[in-house]
Write a structure and sequence with these properties.
This protein is of the alpha+beta class. 51% of the residues lie in helices and 24% in strands. It has helices at residues 11-22, 25-35, 38-52, 73-84, 90-97, 101-113, and strands at 2-10, 57-65, 117-121, 127-131, 135-139. Strand 3 (117-121) and strand 4 form a beta hairpin. The protein starts with a strand and ends with a strand.
């Protein structure tokens, strides 16, 4: 099975990501000149393009090819709840889904381990599930 995770971004957001990754365009140029790294060349070309076209939208895809991921109906419900609600913790997610946190927590951790969502630190010891993608395509 192939799973493609798709994220849509406008040019302004792409540049923000590049600034976070490299600090500045000048630093990226310096690093590229030292290494001739093709990924850096692509990032530099993207940076130049999106400076001139900040409202252009692109799709970034990440492919997962595996037979080990078993997504259940509840997994899809968790992903949907994260996408369409403002979630502040795993407990909050369980509450919004009207489910027991003991049922939802292992699902959230499985989805995180498989790259579908990201868990970021919240208040106290809580984790906030974030859906990093706009679309998930499944191919059999």
């Amino acid at each position: 099975m192939m799973i493609t995770l798709i994220k849509r971004q406008n040019g302004t957001d792409v540049i923000k990501d590049l600034i976070q990754k490299y600090g500045s365009k000048k630093e990226l140029e310096r690093l590229f000149n030292q290494t001739n790294n093709m990924e850096m060349l692509i990032d530099l070309e993207n940076w130049n393009y999106f400076l001139e076209n900040p409202h252009e939208t692109i799709e970034k895809g990440k492919a997962l090819v595996t037979n080990k991921i078993n997504l259940t109906q509840l997994d899809f419900e968790v992903l949907s709840a994260i996408k369409y609600n403002e979630i502040t913790s795993i407990r909050d997610l369980a509450d919004k889904m009207h489910k027991d946190v003991k049922t939802i927590q292992p699902k959230v951790h499985k989805l995180s381990e498989n790259g579908f969502i990201q868990l970021i630190d919240g208040n106290k010891n809580s984790k906030i599930p974030i859906l990093n993608y706009d679309e998930i395509r499944l191919e059999i």
